[in-house]
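User: As part of a screening pipeline, I want to sanity-check one entry by hand. Below is the sequence and the SMILES for 2-acetamido-2-deoxy-beta-D-glucopyranose. Please return the complex as structure tokens so I can compare it with the automated output.
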Amino acid sequence: MDGHVRRLLNRVAIALAAVATAALMHLFRHSSTFCFTTSPAYSSLSLAPFPRTSCDAASRRVVDPDLRLAKLRSTPRWRRHNAALSASLVEPLRRLRLLGNSSRVLCIAAGAGQAVDALRVAGVGDVTGVDLVDFPPLVRRADPHNLPFFDDAFDLVLSDDPAALTGALFPSRFAAEIERTVRRGGAIALAVDRHISLSIVATLFKKSRVVDVRNTSLNGSSASIVILSTNAERH
Ligand SMILES: *[C@@H]1O[C@H](CO)[C@@H](O)[C@H](O)[C@H]1NC(C)=O
Ligand SMILES: *[C@@H]1O[C@H](CO)[C@@H](O)[C@H](O)[C@H]1NC(C)=O
Ligand SMILES: *[C@@H]1O[C@H](CO)[C@@H](O)[C@H](O)[C@H]1NC(C)=O
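Assistant: Here is the complex for your manual check:
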């Protein structure tokens, strides 16, 4: 009698487990089919209809960084900015022999990485982009007041954001970190608001001297590009 009840209970348990497994498998197959077959149709960047299920919405939140970059590069704004950077930053730096294809370059306050892109397109191989917010694939996260790089790690540190210096919480700390990471005899190139007095820039960058200033239009706003040479006799 006891054994009979136990056998009966066992059979019920096995049946329940089988039903549960079948239900799970059905659920899994259903949802994975849905994700794999439907989501590529709404490719990440195109304007897609409202998500029909949570699975659909989740798959669209993951934007492929390379796709996003390709999309950005194709915009007139990006191309205009690159042309301006090439004329007012890359070419002058090359003429002054402060930039070569093998230079190690750091772009700070890099935003979406336009300066990184412009330099790579110009043939510079070793370019790092950082900003307070990362923006893959060209820009990773770093605090400009506390740069995660060794002393003298770069030949050139630059920023194409006119608000980088004036918007810095501690401008002198910002300048000191740049000077720390540029090697002796290297260079610094900064976009600054055109109304900023050059003497302020010169005062902040204690170990460098201004070698070139030119007016330019970046991102629709007028700016000056200041190029400084870090003093080979410092330390
Ligand atoms: C730098 O790279 C660019 C693009 O690859 C090339 O056109 C240029 O000749 C290179 N410059 C030097 C000095 O090698
Ligand atoms: C360009 O301007 C837009 C807004 O007008 C801003 O969001 C973006 O960060 C700017 N880019 C640079 C590199 O200054
Ligand atoms: C840049 O523009 C400002 C005014 O917008 C002017 O005072 C200055 O002389 C110009 N600098 C150069 C190098 O052209």
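Points to compare against the pipeline: The pocket of 2-acetamido-2-deoxy-beta-D-glucopyranose (ligand 2) is lined by residues 111, 114, 160-161, 219 (CB under 6 Å). The chain has a mean pLDDT of 83.
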